[in-house]
Design brief:
Keywords: Metal-binding
Helix content: 40-55%
Shape: elongated
Distance between the termini: 93 Å
Number of domains: 2
GO molecular function: metal ion binding
Number of helices: 7
Protein name: DDE Tnp4 domain-containing protein
Pfam families: DDE_Tnp_4
Number of strands: 8
Cofactor: a divalent metal cation
């Protein structure tokens, strides 16, 4: 696991971070079957009916666990509590980098993994400069867990509002969306990866070659167009000169 930790984490002394949880509410059609179900699906995040999912990613941005989809009124802590047996896969001693909504969830992890979250004001007027700087660095490192959901929503059915016709396959779509995260390049290269492993230089070279060919073709087309226009202009001048002689 140490080889998977990006250098950005180890440079800040966070080389023991093993997981980063984040929640996502997918908007859905409102259920008209039962008003209780409609209320249970209401999401304060998106101000719409929705389904809530908690995902855990590695520091490099790869997904390794997610909850099932719950009705969005369920709190994030309640969702984590239902998944506590699965969370034993996070080794003891590994830290969890999370936002404030997960600050009291360490007790729900079988290995009691310490949670690192932004500071709280707790009655004060403002944060100290040290707290601001520390929180800024933590939030910068947490962007991978939040950005991961942008890859999940590459699945067309999970965009915008999920229609009732897709309710029966929502879990399958969510599974595929999380699998797609791991088919993409890591958001931060693991420290143990060989240099240049994720640069995909061959693909870049092929793309540049394609651009060069396209520019060459366009340039040739413009040259031929100019020559054709010049020939037409010359022919017109000759025709005009012939008419004037007559």
């Amino acid at each position: 696991m140490n080889a998977e930790i990006p250098n950005a984490f180890t440079d800040l002394g966070l080389g023991k971070v093993g997981a980063m949880p984040d929640g996502k509410d997918f908007m859905t059609d409102t259920s008209r079957v039962n008003t209780a179900i409609g209320r249970a699906m209401w999401s304060d995040k998106v101000h719409h009916s929705g389904a809530r999912c908690i995902s855990w990613t590695t520091p490099a941005g790869l997904a390794f666990e997610r909850t099932v989809l719950y009705m969005a009124r369920a709190s994030e802590t309640a969702c984590v509590a239902t998944w506590r047996e699965v969370l034993k896969k996070i080794p003891a001693g590994r830290l969890v980098l999370a936002d404030r909504g997960f600050s009291r969830d360490a007790i729900l992890y079988p290995n009691f993994n310490v949670h690192l979250t932004p500071c709280f004001l707790t009655g004060r007027d403002q944060f100290t400069s040290g707290e601001v700087e520390s929180d800024r660095r933590k939030c910068e490192l947490r962007y991978t867990s939040e950005t991961a959901f942008s890859r999940v929503t590459c699945t067309t059915g999970l965009r915008d509002s999920i229609p009732r016709s897709l309710f029966t396959i929502m879990e399958d779509m969510c599974d595929w969306g999380h699998a797609y995260i791991n088919l993409c390049a890591p958001m931060q290269p693991p420290s143990g990866a060989p240099e240049g492993y994720f640069n995909n230089s061959k693909a870049k070279e092929k793309k540049e070659e394609s651009k060069r060919k396209r520019r060459s073709i366009i340039k040739e087309q413009k040259r031929r167009r100019r020559e054709s226009q010049a020939e037409v202009a010359t022919a017109a001048q000759r025709e005009t000169a012939r008419d004037s002689e007559l």
